[in-house]
Design brief:
Largest sheet: 5 strands, mixed
CATH class of the largest domain: Alpha Beta
Strand content: 15-25%
CATH superfamily of the largest domain: MutM-like, N-terminal
CATH architecture of the largest domain: Alpha-Beta Barrel
Number of helices: 8
Structural class: alpha+beta
Radius of gyration: 20 Å
Shape: globular
Helix content: 25-40%
Oligomer: single chain
Length: about 280
Amino acid sequence: MPELPETETIARDLHEMVVGAVVTGVTVPRPDVLREAHLEGVADALLGRPIRRVWRRAKLIVLDFDARPELAALDPAWRLVVQPRFTGGLVVDDGSLDAAERAYVCVTLTLGDGRALHYRDVRRLGTVALMDRARFAAYSGALGAEPLDPELTDDAFSVCIRESRQAIKITLMDQKRLAGVGNIYANEALWHAGIDPSREARTLSAGEYATLRQALQQVLTASIAARGTSFRDYRDARGERGRFVEQLAAYGRAGAPCRRCGRRLVGTHAVDGRSTVFCPGCQY
């Protein structure tokens, strides 16, 4: 957490809010979150650059920066790659951010219009990496297919997971197979598809692969529309909570009645050491 819907929401917000803004200051109160760079390197790379694009890859939020105008083609292109993990997030601060929220700020980009873009992280498990395009291409190339890619057909989806001997839930969360799916949405997709999370991925039929792909895409799309799922720490770039928690059918509902068949949902950590919630009556 945050997973694909949450990072997609943050990236879309930021794209609307900060594209075109020029970085005029860089501060790093907690440099332990930095990867592949140090404070001086980040400042040297980003100062004076306009933000060109903000987008998502897997569970990453990627900020693309334009070349400095005075250097143009001679200036290397940089990307700031943020992996929020459990408690991290990016928020735009116009000066009204609560002081309690600022206590967890790890990296701040001061913008030319007076606002600030903060990376805040309560537990500091997330990372902020500085990469040039070649390095990012190699990093991204090691990740799997995007679940919402229009080119991810039923056949392409089955190719991603059908050879795995692991439980289908574990396979869905393998970032080298599918990029962006975590525990919440694996639980939800498998409930909607009526598939037992502990089944070996390779045992699914062609019809079940198709059903699961459709269920996964529907769940992710619905969550993006609801601006993600907030239990504790997740906030969007405006500091607001996601609303998809109201639509969850499995995750976080162990012991509650199944919304499909009425049987009590079971919670277990036996599948992958994480919270797995499923219906023993209609998931098989």
